[in-house]
UniProtKB/TrEMBL annotation:
Residues 440-556 are annotated as: Regulatory domain. Residues 32-306 form the Pyruvate carboxyltransferase domain. This is 2-isopropylmalate synthase. Its cofactor is Mg(2+). Its main location: cytoplasm. One of its GO terms (biological process) is L-leucine biosynthetic process. Mg(2+) binds at residues 41, 245, 247, 281. Transmembrane segments: none annotated. Homodimer. The gene is leuA. InterPro entries: 2-isopropylmalate_synth_dimer, AIPM/Hcit_synth_CS, Aldolase_TIM, IPM_Synthase, LeuA-like_post-cat, LeuA_allosteric_dom_sf, LeuA_N_DRE-TIM, PYR_CT. Catalyzes the condensation of the acetyl group of acetyl-CoA with 3-methyl-2-oxobutanoate (2-ketoisovalerate) to form 3-carboxy-3-hydroxy-4-methylpentanoate (2-isopropylmalate).
């Protein structure tokens, strides 16, 4: 049960004493080095860790996305990881510009196994870790600070020794003071310096110092302070690459990574869609696309986001949430009326503007950039409005309904969605449209044929003469007017029992070239009856106009 006084059990996280911090004044103006740890930190958190087939598929996906540093596993954990990594090396299928990395505890037998797994690769990173924070010192290792520091120093010495044993590989090293974000900064620094003393990194061959938020325990500004503090206090800043490894226990892994970059981080370790221990590692997809939407090329390519999702879901056997930033199935979809209206207007404005700058309301990124189409952007349910319904009709049928007709049809859709209580498909909407405006010849009036001629009697007078099925009986009707529309309106007067007043008429082409068709819309009323709307579609404009009037007349 939750405590009424949680301070009995939990302590607030201490702030970092960094009065003149500069990270809040910075912006992210370049992409970091990316390391995917999907095949290690992600994999170790799966219900069923990946086997060789899945690991290979994931590896190929990472190459396709453009990740250049890949933590391929924990080779001392067992044969699955070891054999997969050896297989990668032996098959020679690691591209020249890609470096593999493996993780190991700071223990001789495990480090030796790790070297064995990657020996022969042109270039490889061995990543050694040991936890440094008080709870781990006391509880896991039962060692004091000196004892924990000794684990790191010993590990670094073994790294040097093993690298010398396999000179054909260009070895690089990464050291993680695991649990960095919950440890005393001075102690993390002391341990990192001790590792640097052993490994003697240089600007040409730097040591990767990975500063993980192994468990996210504070707000992201605290992590940024910790990173800036380390960057300022490390003795040879240009001899180390500062790597960030945020987890997401408080749900602010992305923010921590971004603020950590402002604070001096050079490299990010994370997983696609944020898989990983507990609530996950930081999500590389979101981070990269956050940069992209600020106009910065992140260096990772998610042009086919659906393929990425498919592969990751298959390999991890975990779903990507439908509302996952940028990627989820629903993140580009608006159901609600005012959002749909704004998006529809936004797309229209986007077409009119003469630059590429993205300004569509409610959509932070162009779905097309991620290989998504616009069809699913607007979906219709009881929360939808006329703009959304009109969008669906326009996308599917090419009909650009006049505004008042949108409102007219929207009432039909509203009734339908209220009565069905579910999302309406574009098929549902089109069927309702055909029914409402009698497009299938099911009303009182149905056109058989017609012709329009110029009056001999009076200049500017047109004559409509046609055969129309009225109430099931074919009849010849004719009427005179100053154009096709008014002459037809007059021709129908008797059958309608009053004059047909045309309030508004418009038309447009559907499609281009020889396949183009015409759509005509009419708003009218019979006498002082209710407003009627009609629509007609045909290969030629005149027939479309006649059909539009009959469609409206059918509503009378
Ligand atoms: C934050 C992270 O994600 S760290 C990465 C975690 N990933 C994994 O653990 C996945 C792969 N791990 C494994 O397959 C196994 O744990 C192995 C092969 C690494 C080790 O297996 P085992 O030795 O059988 O077991 P186990 O992991 O429980 O070892 C615990 C021992 O290692 C010590 N240890 C733990 N971490 C470290 C470390 N980084 N450096 C040195 N010793 C360590 C513990 O103190 C403990 O010592 P004790 O037995 O004297 O108490
Ligand atoms: C081994 C380290 C980098 C780790 O995975 C963590 O701290 O989360």
């Amino acid at each position: 049960m939750m405590l009424s006084d949680p301070s009995r059990k939990y302590r607030p996280f201490p702030q970092v004493d960094l009065p003149n911090r500069i990270w809040p004044t910075r912006t992210i103006d370049r992409a970091p080095r990316w390391l995917s740890t999907d095949l290690r930190d992600g994999n170790q958190a799966l219900i069923d860790p990946m086997g060789a087939e899945k690991k290979n598929r994931f590896f190929d996906l990472l190459l396709k996305v453009g990740v250049k540093e890949i933590e391929v596993g924990f080779p001392s954990s067992g044969a699955t990881d070891f054999d997969f990594i050896r297989g990668l090396v032996d098959s020679g299928r690691i591209p020249d510009d890609v470096t593999i990395q493996s993780l190991t505890q700071s223990r001789r037998d495990l480090i030796e196994k790790t070297f064995e797994s990657m020996a022969g690769a042109p270039r490889a990173i061995v990543h050694v870790y040991n936890a440094v924070s008080p709870a781990w010192r006391d509880i896991v290792f039962n060692l004091d600070k000196a004892g924990v520091k000794a684990i790191a120093i010993e590990g670094a010495n073994i790294l040097k020794e093993q690298a010398a044993k396999y000179p054909q590989t260009d070895w690089h090293f990464e050291y993680s003071p695991e649990t960095f974000s919950t440890a005393e900064l001075e102690f993390s620094l002391e341990v990192c310096e001790a590792v640097m003393d052993v490994l003697q990194p240089t600007a040409e061959k730097p040591l990767i110092l990975n500063l993980p938020a192994t468990i996210e325990a504070a707000m992201p500004n605290v992590y940024a302070d910790q990173i800036e503090w380390m960057c300022r206090n490390i003795s040879a800043r240009d001899h180390v690459i500062i790597s960030l490894h945020p987890h997401n226990d408080r749900g602010s892994g992305i923010a921590a990574a971004e603020l950590g970059l402002l604070a001096g981080g050079d490299r990010i370790e994370g997983c696609l869609f944020g898989n990983g221990e507990r609530t996950g590692n930081v999500d590389l997809v979101t981070l990269a696309l956050n940069m992209y939407t600020q106009g910065l090329n992140p260096g990772l390519d998610f042009s086919d986001i659906d393929e990425v999702i498919q592969t990751v879901e298959y390999c991890n056997q975990l779903p990507v949430h439908p509302r996952h930033p940028y990627a989820g199935e629903l993140v580009f979809t608006a159901f609600s009326g005012s959002h749909q209206d704004a998006i529809k207007k936004g797309f229209a404005a986007q077409e009119r503007q003469n630059d590429e700058i993205w300004r569509v309301p409610y959509l932070p990124i162009d779905p097309a950039d991620l290989g998504r189409n616009y069809e699913a952007v607007i979906r219709v349910n009881s929360q939808s409005g006329k703009g959304g319904v009109a969008w669906v009709i326009e996308q599917d049928q090419g009909l650009k309904l006049p505004k008042r007709m949108q409102a007219n049809f929207s009432t039909t859709v509203q009734e339908l969605s209220d009565s069905t209580g579910r999302e309406l498909t574009s098929n549902d909407i089109w069927e309702a449209f055909e029914k409402r405006y009698h497009l299938k010849g099911d009303g009182r009036f149905r056109l058989i044929d017609f012709h329009e001629t110029q009056s001999q009697r009076q200049k500017d007078e047109r004559i409509f003469a046609g055969n129309i099925r009225i109430d099931g009986v074919e009849q010849s009707v004719s009427g005179r007017g100053n154009g096709l529309i008014s002459s037809l309106a007059n021709a129908l007067q008797d059958a309608l029992g009053g004059p047909l007043d045309i309030i508004d008429y418009s038309e447009h082409a559907i499609g281009h070239g020889t396949d183009a068709r015409a759509a005509a819309y009419v708003e009218c009323r019979v006498g002082d009856g209710p407003i009627l709307f009609g629509v007609g579609i045909s290969q030629d404009v005149a027939t479309a106009s006649v059909r539009a009037i009959l469609s409206a007349a059918n509503g009378a």
